[in-house]
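Page 42, continued from yesterday. The earlier attempt failed because a stray header line got pasted into the input along with the sequence. Redoing it now with the clean sequence only.
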Amino acid sequence: MQSLPGRRHLDGVQPDAPAVRVLVVDDDENFRGWITTLLRRAGLSVEEATDGLEAVAHLEESSFDLMIADLEMPKMDGLTLIRHIRATPQLAHQYAVMLTSHEDLDSKLTALTVGYDDFLAKSCGEAEVVAKVLAAKRMLARNRMLSAAASEWQTIASRDELTGVASRRALIDAAVQALGSGRPVGIAILDLDDFKPVNDTFGHLTGDRILRDIGSLFLHRTRSNELIARYGGDEFVLLVCDLPMDDLAGAAQRLVAEIEALSWSSGDATFTIRVTAGVGHSSLIEDVSFEKLLDAADRDLYARKWIKKNPGTSPDLYEYRRQSPGRLVSLPSTPLPDEPGRIARDKN
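This time it went through. Structure tokens are written below.
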């Protein structure tokens, strides 16, 4: 079973945090060498570029936490450089500080307006350079922690806490995206038969253990390009792309067989779980949507459940029940026993 993320660390930079990477861009070799030395003393990893074009090449080849660039350079000056960076999606997030020999307010405002995050005067002393860079380092560390926390929360939100499989929301998002791409999409609903009596007889802790075991089986028996999600209390949905209907049905039945081969013990009792699967495929649905796909699989599921309760019925009767929307009614030629409709979701 895939493990969920561990506890979040929001109280400081971790000991193994990577060094902050800085790109210094300046055509003045002496000044570039001086500021590079200061940054390395502060524990930063530094690379150098002599002009804007060389800086762009560095940025496209590798990622940097901070770029410090001179305003006046040959080939591509600092303002042209930052405009290019902000207009390039894969570089647009770059944190950048402008170096300038100009002390006037207009130059500083222009730098900030065009896209620099901060500025540093070339006339500043060593203490100011170190202080500004360390402040940027603290900000970058906070951004890293917030990014890591957001990533963890996104992972948690996309996973069912009990079983470890994908959440309902993650399933819907993935299905909508796949259908939007025009790819053939299939889903299989796998429903645990009569699971409520298991909880009533053996307790919810046993029920939770069974669901965790089944979730682990799903994660080990599905491929990386398939998605398995917990859709309801004891319902799971398998989402596949580019798989024909017959192969989808076969994959669902293999999972059913593997679940039904498991057994659990509670006290002196040993028991198994029965499973029913229903499938739906986009190739069989006009103007397909996730709701239509889910409804087709749901109707197939409940038709199969009814057939289990009424063995020996004809294929025509199964097909009728699979196509019937809403509450199921009797065919005039084939009386059906009374049963709760699917509207109430009363499991047979």
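Notes: The first strand starts at residue 21 and ends at 25.
Reminder to self: strip header lines before submitting.
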